Structure formats: C-alpha cells, structure tokens
Amino acid sequence: MAWQSWPLWSALYHLAVWSILMAITAYDIRHKIIPDGMVYILIGLSALSVLLTEVRLQSIGWRVGVALSMALFFAALWHFSAGKWMGLGDAKLALGLGLLLGPSQGFAALLLAFWIGAAFGVALLLFRGRYATIKTEVPFAPFLILGAALAAFGHIDMAAVLSFFSFSNALY
User: Which of the two ends of the chain, N or C, has the fewest CB atoms closer than 10 A to its terminal CB?
Assistant: First the structure.
C-alpha cells in the first residue's frame, strides 16, 4: 500500500514486469520455450505486489487461488497432451499473470489469449502452403502476454467480456 504512493517505485515495478514479459515473448517466439528464470522472477514480482497491495487475507486467497487454477489448467493441458498442446512454461507463466492481474482480469486475459491465438491459427491455416503446415508449432506465451496487456491497459475484466456477449443492451 505505502509503496504505491511513491510513483517512482510503482513505475520501476511496472517497467520491470513488462520488460520481463516482453523478453519472454521474444524468447518464446525465437526458441519456442519459456525460460524458467524469467518466469520465476515474474512470479516473485507478482507475489510481492499481491503481498504489498492486498490488505485483506481473503483478497490474497482469491488472487492466489485464481492464479493456481490458471496454472493448473495449463499444467493439465501439458500433462494430458504429453507436451504437444502446451508447454509447462505456459502453466508457470499463467501463474505469474494470474497473480499480477487478479481474478477478473486474469480470466479475461486467458480468454483473450485463446481468442487471439485461435484467430492467428486460422490465419496460418489459410496460408498453410506458403507459411505453415498443420504441424507448425506456434508459441502460446505471446498470446498470453498480449491478452494480459489488453486486460491490464484496456481495463478489460470478465464483466466486460461477458457484456460483449450480452444482447440486453441492444434492446434499449
């Protein structure tokens, strides 16, 4: 709480977090693997932020629970596909992003990542002969990070995502 009243600390924190996320994006695009060291630093910074900003124990529990559920979802995809659908690094990254964004923005970022990734995959398949085949590996971390950036900077949470599908506003 107190550290957020100092804009310099907040700016340095956000600079560090988003720099790490950009480095993870570049590394995953190039090597198709997420470096553990960068992800562990992200998880540590995100956990530190939770401990310093959340005043209620229940809020900390919610944030940690959502982050763990996001990580377990990706870990299950990794486990049941034997690493063909997702890498374990995506699960670790989801843990860090879940801690960073919190429950509502975390799930919104996850949905955005899957939608953007699906659109990218369809585009690749349309140009299959020229750029890719059905077996082309596509790193998912850039989509997770793009979803997180859209959720964080666009103030998109689950209420905004659900209202996108709501037709009740169109009737008035």
Answer: C
Tokens matching residue 2? 């107190």
Those residues with Cβ within 8 angstroms of residue 117's Cβ, 6 or more apart along the chain or in another chain: 138, 140, 143
Q: Do residues 23 and 37 touch, judged by C-beta distance below 8 A?
A: no
The pLDDT tens digits along the chain (172 residues) read: 444 566 888 889 999 999 999 999 999 999 999 999 999 999 999 999 999 888 788 889 999 999 999 999 999 999 999 988 899 999 999 999 999 999 999 999 999 999 999 999 888 888 776 667 777 889 999 999 999 999 999 999 888 888 877 765 555 5
pTM: 0.88
Query: Which of 16-33 are b and which e, b meaning 16 or more Cβ less than 10 Å from the residue's Cβ?
Result: ebbebbeebbebbeeeee
